[in-house]
């Protein structure tokens, strides 16, 4: 039986206020693009989305752990084979650390293959007295500060779809075709990481895994099983551009249910999670797993209404709440939220985004985050869950497999004045591969205990 929510259709969001939408200059051009998009094939399939939901249900019970990470904002110019491979490699490395050292199955999820639209604090940006539309991500306009570049162009939505499709195509090839096999666990270590203390710890662990696989083969257990020679990476992005998401929303022929087939999981950002807003209205009706970012100024009753609206049947795995409180506020903000939601008996995957409320401007003028702040927020997240008797189910990072200098600190102790060396992000600062691996080892210790 299809289970469409009451009074919902894939366009019912249009009767609600939609924040953070571009102001397109030419409505006819938008309609043409949306008509094209709605006939193009889905990017992901309902069956995959359902298996993800089952895994997330396990995470809500503490039987699995969600690792979600990738760029703050993907850029069309960075959609290249090496970049996709490096992002996949670091996610696989982190996942293997969490699984082997942490002892829990890990759900691997990229902020990838669709993370092309960004919420902004203002509609316009003013530089030297010139006001232009803010950059809203490559699916809307271009970052360059010229009137031409900043003009929203609906054709970029079509380009975004194509970029997502080619990214997914390569990811599927890598994860199914041997690259993601545990037999290659040592090869995921990159040269610039291998020389570092983290890289050496990883290498030791990878050798142990390789020996275990060899031992299995020696005694006659085949390593030619999907558990060893394949892996699965799920995709996710912020469901921000509702016209795009609607165009990729389809009925599943098996169940008759609606799925947003632009990614396996979609999340609602801190700026667009109004209970009566268009983003909540749209996502309440699709059957994907949904994430919601929760910042420190949340209202308890508001969060309850959000949960009841997005997950009225209290289905485990449906809803992930991603808290992003910041080191300074998490201690005060997390406990009451956990206590109250536990009292209500809500099934929730609790995930920690230790990035978005720990941003500051360095002396060099770069927007950055400090490794110790990130780690401290995660530590506090785990400790608070333990003391409240709730389950820390996952983490959410902005990270890259490349050797960037965007976040300070870490084993290499990147300093403010070194940020300029390789600062590449077009949006928020990301952990580099070594910092990501370091944080994974620290979380593995917490998961195990
Ligand atoms: C993001 O994840 O890039 C983001 C904008 O987060 P938030 O909605 O939590 O601010
Ligand atoms: Co961000």
Walk me through this protein's architecture.
- This protein has 449 residues and is an alpha/beta fold.
- It folds into 2 domains: 12-119 and 154-448, Aldolase class I (TIM Barrel, Alpha-Beta Barrel), CATH 3.20.20; 121-147, no CATH class.
- Helix content is 40%, strand content 14%.
- The chain has helices spanning 27-39, 46-60, 81-100, 147-150, 155-176, 191-194, 197-218, 226-229, 242-247, 278-285, 300-310, 330-344, 371-388, 433-448; strands spanning 65-70, 106-111, 124-127, 130-133, 233-238, 249-251, 258-260, 265-268, 290-294, 319-323, 349-352, 359-361, 367-369, 392-398.
- The strands form 4 sheets. Strands 1-2-5-8-9-10-11-14 form an 8-stranded parallel barrel, surrounded by 6 helices. A two-stranded antiparallel ribbon has the order 3-4. The protein has a two-stranded antiparallel sheet with strand order 6-7.
- A hairpin with a 5-residue loop joins strand 12 (359-361) and strand 13 (367-369).
- It is globular and about 65 Å long.
- The model has no long low-confidence stretch (mean pLDDT 95).
- The structure holds phosphoenolpyruvate and cobalt (II) ion (CO).
- Phosphoenolpyruvate binds next to loops.
Question: Which features would summarize this protein structure in a list?
Answer:
single chain; 449 residues; alpha/beta; TIM Barrel; 8-stranded parallel barrel; two-stranded antiparallel ribbon; 14 strands; 14% strand; globular; binds phosphoenolpyruvate; binds cobalt (II) ion
Give a nutshell description of this structure.
The chain has about 450 residues and is an alpha/beta fold. Helix content is about 40%, strand content about 15%.
